[in-house]
Design goal:
Number of domains: 4
Radius of gyration: 47 Å
Structural class: mainly beta
Shape: elongated
Strand content: 25-35%
Helix content: under 10%
CATH class of the largest domain: Mainly Beta
Oligomer: single chain
CATH topology of the largest domain: Immunoglobulin-like
Length: 509
């Protein structure tokens, strides 16, 4: 056994002595990841001390190779308690890149120190890009293995802070829903708005107060942070529910933290407020008139020619178009009251008036006279007005009117009929003794006033006896101008038109 071991040792020594054979060289990259506290760009001190600076512990350092324009990561490590890292046993003749990763919770505080041509190579940051990459590091085979050891350091510095603003508008609504509706959106002044840093235990960051038009601005807020704001309405106001146009919760008066961090472009938070009504609102009302628009012009005439219509059902709808009240128009002829209506004791809010359809009438055109005091305010298809806003305690919306006219009775349907006969004596008149028979199965078309075919499938009768065969009929016709076309047949020629001057017996084609 000893003899075999000795032989093996001799063989290994012989191999190592052979010319042209060397042990494979490998390289390493190591360094420190530091924070430059004193502002001189380098890390300070000797023999391991870092006076005035700080070293990053357990920070990620990555090793990459480059493939074209892409970086491919080949290794990753973490710094030790002295801020040091190392990558060992690296292959020769390859370009490597080190990337220093700023810890996630410090990315808003620090930024990379980028190597400049004026920096010494020792003791300064070797980072060349704002993503933390160094330049290329080449590992080559060298006689002295220590020559393949590279010291590559990464440095961070405290960011110069940038600032942004939070802005927005506080608007007045007529109810508690969180969306601006028709007639809403007036600005509200003297609302205090405060901003808080979401990532710093909710630390107070600044405040503003709304102007006359409801706008506010909170300046000098550090960018890169997420913020939330609170709204404190002036006396007599409450926040509307959170919704499309209002960001804060109505109970907590606070928004959620911004989904995006603040940039120099700013963040926007809006809020709606309203004045809650205490029970009823005795002076809030909507009134108007329903009248007979005899001349269909959409404007009210005198009560003699275009009188009001009484006993017509109306409904009061809320902002969701749900019925909350109903009434009928006045039937009294005294003082021009006929056709009038009123809804009273209305709370602040958005309303619609519905004039219930009556099959004998149609609504006249809406707003055709461009005069709110005399024209019709309803959609002719639905009988419902646009929104009507009661926005303060004494609001009274008048002249919410509707015009209608009587529908014309259905038009009497018309009929066109006749006969196609064989004019054997060619005199253009039908023989009264039925000796000139009708011709069946002959195509007849009905054309309108533009001579466009409206009926294409009719044929003359072929089943009846004398006086019936050859007849045709188009019935159920609305009033208008028509033409009848008898389609030509080979072998036949039409006789002369109106030859005897008697529409009952002569030819009309």
């Amino acid at each position: 056994m000893k003899r075999c071991y000795l032989c093996a040792m001799i063989m290994l020594m012989c191999l190592l002595a052979l010319p042209g054979l060397t042990r494979a060289q490998s390289g390493s990259i190591n360094g420190v990841f530091y924070i430059d506290i004193n502002g001189d760009r380098s890390f300070n001190g000797e023999s391991g001390t870092r006076k005035g600076d700080s070293l990053l512990t357990n920070a990620t350092v990555e090793l990459y190779r480059k493939n074209g324009q892409d970086y491919n990561r080949v290794a990753s490590t973490a710094t030790d308690i002295n801020g040091r890292y190392s990558f060992l046993n690296l292959e020769n003749a390859n370009d490597y890149y080190v990337r220093f990763v700023i810890p996630a919770d410090e990315q808003n505080i620090y930024e990379y120190i980028i190597f400049s041509g004026d920096d010494p190579e020792i003791g300064y940051s070797d980072i060349v890009s704002d993503q933390g990459y160094t330049g290329a590091i080449q590992i080559h085979s060298k006689n002295n293995q220590n020559d393949n050891k590279y010291n590559i350091d990464g440095g961070l510095k405290i960011k110069e802070p940038t600032y942004g603003s939070i802005t927005g508008t506080v608007w007045e609504g007529s109810n508690s829903n969180g969306s601006k509706e028709h007639g809403e959106g007036k600005g509200v002044k003297d609302v205090v708005v405060k901003a808080y840093d979401c990532g710093n235990n909710g630390k107070y960051a600044g405040e503003g107060i709304t102007k006359e038009n409801g706008t506010y601005t909170i300046d000098n807020l550090i960018t890169g942070l997420s913020y939330r704001v609170t709204f404190e309405p002036a006396a007599g106001y409450s926040l509307v529910d959170k919704g499309t146009d209002s960001d804060p919760d109505s109970s907590s008066k606070t928004t959620e933290c911004s989904a995006n961090a603040l940039t120099t472009s700013g963040l926007v938070f809006n809020a709606g407020v309203f004045k809650p009504s205490a029970g009823g609102n005795p002076n809030g009302q909507i009134n108007g008139r329903l009248w007979l628009d005899a001349n269909h012009d959409g404007a009210q005439g005198g009560i003699e020619t275009e009188p009001g219509i009484g006993n017509w059902r109306l409904r009061l709808l809320n902002s969701s178009k749900v019925v909350v009240d109903s009434t009928i128009t006045d039937t009294s002829n005294a003082g021009g009251q006929k056709g009038r209506y009123t809804f009273t004791k209305l709370d602040l809010g958005i309303y619609y008036i519905q004039f219930v359809k009556n099959g004998d009438y149609s609504f006249t055109d809406k707003n055709s006279a461009n005069n709110d005091e005399s024209d019709s305010d309803v959609n002719p298809e639905t009988g419902i007005t646009d929104s009507v806003v009661i926005d303060h305690a004494d609001a009274s919306e008048e002249h919410i009117d509707a015009g209608v006219y009587l529908n014309e009775p259905p038009a009497v349907k018309g009929r066109i009929s006749g006969i196609l006969w064989q004019d054997t004596d060619k005199n253009g008149a039908q023989a009264l003794n039925n000796s000139e028979p009708g011709i069946g199965n002959w195509k007849v078309r009905l054309l309108n006033s533009d001579k466009t075919v409206v009926v294409d499938s009719a044929e003359t009768d072929n089943t009846g006896g004398p006086g019936t065969k050859g007849t045709y009929e188009f019935s159920g016709l609305i009033p208008g101008t028509y033409y009848v076309k008898f389609v030509k047949h080979t072998g036949y020629t039409f006789t002369s038109q109106n030859a005897v001057g008697n529409d009952d017996i002569d030819s009309d084609v």
